[in-house]
Amino acid sequence: MEKDILLILRKVSEEMGVKSYIVGGYIRDKILNLESNDIDITVEGDGIRYALMLNKILNGKIEIHEKFKTAKIQADKYTFDVVSARKEYYTHSGILPDVELADIVEDIKRRDFTINMLAFDIKEGMIIDLCNGLDDIKNKLIRVVHDKSFNDDPTRIFRALRYSVRLDFKLEPHTELLLKQSIANGDFDNLSTDRIMNEIYLILSEKNPETIVKLMKHYRIDEKIFDGIKINIRNLNTCVRCGDLLLYRFLLFFYNVKKDDLDYLNEKFNFKRQYTKGLSDLIEIKMNLYTLKDDIVAYNLFKDKKIEAINAIYTMEGENIKKIVDRYFEVIRSLKLEINGDDIKELGLRPSPIYKKILDNIYYDKICGKIRSKEDEFERLKQYVEKVKRGEKI
Ligand code: ATP
């Protein structure tokens, strides 16, 4: 299959009369014998036309971004990102660069680390290695190519840590020095909070986020970006029994956040709604953990909370809490009533929101253990309906 892809890319290049290259992570991963299906292609020419021609052969799904002269193709298990070779100018530290068409050498030079600066010349069938990336891969080193690299784009600090853990590489000593200097100089102040959070999400989506977050702490990055809010470094590699893995890990990451910090964090980072809700659920559960003694308390505390928040509690807390959470998921949450709205209707009440109230009350009685059979449910239902008919509050 991969040989076929190479042939197809060569064909498209030849038909268009342009040079094209496979660049970046795919080449790095191939050399390291790692599975990779994300193929980045740089075209010395019109990348969009190239992508359209490529997709004619691949018959995948294509997305075109005219503004950035890029296109993405999803075909089979592969994702192709096609760009026109470009050169970038940094105006201010941390701000997205201006774009100008250029040739492959310029394109390679704008990249973050030497191990990502390899390009495979599709026509010639050979690797272009401008900055000794092959040696650095062999020696397992992350190295920047110029001293202003982290200052130009401080997201590279996160990227360096991500690669070093994912690939089990070390920061080359001078690169590590520059990274420390950049952190100390406050380069993070030039990054938007959106870009910071994007990097945090990328870290939390890795296989081993815990070691990366530990490195963030080691280099005191958390102090620079979270103003004294202590991030959690435990259990970050765990997975979740149900729900959204990224949200779950986000909640573990912010497990130590106090109620008073919540508004500050939300305002500064403008988290997505789900994440804000998850965080406030987590804090509320934590504040009430000491009340968790029986099923009914668990039901009341957990019923409108995000599953990921309950799972984070499960992961972080001791055996007693784990038992209650297990019971909540395995027994309480799966309790179902055998009666429904039709039964209320048959007893002569017209449909209205009172139906929900009645069913909720009976459900609650069931969790409390006051109801044990379908007959009990009916009996209870009749009592509630009578009460409503008499105009009494239930
Ligand atoms: P993966 O997608 O597996 O994390 P990748 O190496 O493909 O690894 P991407 O984030 O997809 O990484 O980026 C693609 C390429 O773009 C990288 O190989 C890198 O050379 C370049 N790149 C990405 N972000 C930056 C950056 N902030 N500064 C310089 N180059 C970058």
Automatic annotation (TrEMBL):
Residues 21-143 form the Poly A polymerase head domain. It comes from the Bacteria. SUPFAM superfamilies: Nucleotidyltransferase, Poly A polymerase C-terminal region-like. One of its GO terms (biological process) is tRNA processing. InterPro entries: NT_sf, PolA_pol_head_dom, PolyA_RNA-bd, tRNA_nt/polyA_polymerase. The keyword Lipid biosynthesis does not apply. Belongs to the tRNA nucleotidyltransferase/poly(A) polymerase family. PANTHER family: A-ADDING TRNA NUCLEOTIDYLTRANSFERASE (PTHR47788:SF1), POLYA POLYMERASE (PTHR47788). This is Polynucleotide adenylyltransferase region.
